Request: fold
Amino acid sequence: MSNTLAHKSVTDGPAIPTSAAAPAPQQPSIHVRALITWLAIFPLVAIGMMATAPLVEGWHPILRSLLLTALVVPVAVYLVVPRLFAGYGALMRRRNAKR
Reply:
């Protein structure tokens, strides 16, 4: 059982990994996370507004926002943001490997 935590009881101390694992990657700063999230949301909102405009032309702005966010948020959270973070991680790994 490599890379797993050793069995422990409630009275034992913290679990100790059974094998040496690679250090965890450093989290991006809050500013980088905000920028990546914005880079995902802005284009999705712009595209969503243009795509839904003919359908929701006469709707109240609150209902238009409800529909738009119901479409954009899941796409951003489950598809776009994870891919952008993966790209950012690859970029940072490549940059750190050159050092």
The chain has a mean pLDDT of 85.
